[in-house]
Amino acid sequence: MVVRMDNLIYLGVKMETPAWSKHPLQDSQLTSSKLITDTPLLLNMSDNNIKARINRAVDDKETLWIQIERPLNEITISSGWISTNSEGVKKVSCWDWFDFKQIKENASLKEIYLSAKKTLSRNKDNASLEQYPPTIKETLTLLDQQYSANSPKYAMITTDSFKGLIDKPVLASALSRILINYESEWYGKVDSEGKLPKWEALNSEMTENANNVLNYLTKGDEAKLDAYINTLETSKQQSVKKGIEELKRKIDRFPKDYKSNPKQKLTQGQIEIHEKVQKLEQKVMDWEKSKEKIKKMLWWDDVAKGLAKLNQTNGTQPENTNTTDTKATPTDATPPAALSADGKAWFIHPLAMVSYFNEEINLIRNYTLENAELALRAIYEKYGKDMAIIIERMYRSETAHFKSLQYKKTGTGGMESFGYPPYYGWDKEFFLLNPNYTQLYSYRNYTFI
Predict the structure, then answer these.
(1) Separation of alpha carbons 250 and 290, rounded Å
(2) Is the peptide bond before 134 cis (omega within 30 degrees of 0)?
(3) Rounded distance, CA 148 to CA 154, Å?
(4) Measured between alpha carbons, how far is 247 from 424 in angstroms, rounded to an integer?
(5) How far is Cα 269 from Cα 262, in angstroms, rounded to an integer?
(6) What's 435's DSSP letter?
(7) Which residue, 208, 225, 207, 227, is CA-closest to 216?
(8) On the chain, which terminus has fewer CB atoms closer than 10 Å, C or N?
(9) Of all helices (H) and strands (E), which one includes residue 169?
């Protein structure tokens, strides 16, 4: 069955679909084909390359064949022909959600971080993907395929590895169709000490070494120094320890009141040492500030509870508020809005979705501030002032006040860097310091912040 949507017809080609690499094109010879696609393909039949006569042919049975570039393992065969009537080919629309892979990720934030870091040491002796959680494993599976079978290279979770997919649209498309169910960054439980345990767990990776060195340099804590030294390779431990101990002796010779005016009371060499200590202190301070920003920007739990209260007031009960099941039961009534109580959601690549559901992205017509106003008014009318305020704050912090490229092209948010590193969006202090950003519009005697 041919499914049409805005004049688009897609061919969904399953993995291991045989293709023919020679003329004449005959279905009967597909069984002897040595060309296998290796990864699912999604071919846009409206694409100019596919529409070109040189890439299309019709056999003696009036079957249309499409020439495709070999997406993987290009050393063997660089291109081949796919029969549109072969078993592995199906005509689909964007609504078929062709080959979207769902992953339910249960690894902790720290486990994800350490796994991504671990990929940096991948080589032929340490290339197994079984040592990684599902999200990292699936990502590396696709990234690895940009290299030939004989290549000594192995993908890592780095910018360069992802850049390698720029000229490999088949792999880039497959990567964009990964759906990941994971706990939202906007969700978190604060403990009795006012801290976020999942982020505190990263202290050991972010600042523990800096803290240990600082404690030795400023307080002479030998145990802290040993704790840092033990994280180093054995061959480097002795030389590094001697260097830090020498640095401590030099600091001990600083004038006692040097902090009141370091530039005047320290020599040039001492000033350089002082600046090194300041960098360590700044690193620790930046991480602490970052965690405070994260805590101030958590909104998921408030919205989830607000929606639950709203649904209760309206006499409706949302289904599956504690589950992550994506299968919905058909109904004539609009289901009540809800967020999962456990903070989990399905994450999808927004730009990929725009490309998937549209033949061309209209680069002239962008989402504007007016679109945001209309959406917020609708939210205000349906869910009330408090919900509209939360949504607007969230979008302002993620879209540079509705000016980011992602918002303009897709209407969606995305984290914008702000402040001192490590960056983590904006908090309410920014709005207090910039009152010109605090009002979007007023009506019905209400002002949205």
Answers:
(1) 32
(2) no
(3) 10
(4) 33
(5) 12
(6) G
(7) 225
(8) N
(9) helix 169-176
Angle at 260 between CA 256 and CA 261, to 5 degrees: 105
DSSP 380: H
Half-sphere exposure (Cβ direction) of 155: Cα atoms closer than 13 Å: 23
The full length of the chain comes to 449
Contacts made by residues 402-411, CB under 8 angstroms, sequence distance 24+: 402/367, 402/368, 402/369, 402/372, 406/350, 406/351, 407/367, 408/366, 408/367, 408/368, 409/351, 409/354, 409/361, 409/363, 409/366, 409/367, 410/350, 410/351, 410/353, 410/354, 410/367, 411/367, 411/371
- Predicted confidence at residue 440, as pLDDT, reads 38
- Is pTM beyond 0.85? Reply is no
Residue 334 — left, alpha, or beta (φ > 0 → left; ψ -120 to 50 → alpha)? Answer: beta
Where are the extended beta strands (E) located within 85-192? Answer: 89-92, 101-104, 178-183
For residues 274 and 262, the answer to whether their CB atoms sit within 8 Å is yes
Q: What are 50-92's pLDDT values in tens digits?
A: 788 888 888 777 888 888 765 444 433 456 777 787 777 777 7
Nearest to 175 by CA among 159, 157, 156, 162: 162
Query: Dihedrals φ, ψ of 436, to 5°?
Result: -65, -15
Contacts with 171 (C-beta within 8 Å, 6 or more apart), sequence order: 39, 71, 72, 142, 143, 145, 146, 165
Q: Which residues pair with 79 in a beta bridge?
A: 69
Mark the ranges of the chain whose per-residue pLDDT is less than 50.
1-10, 71-77, 323-329, 359-363, 415-428, 430-431, 435-449
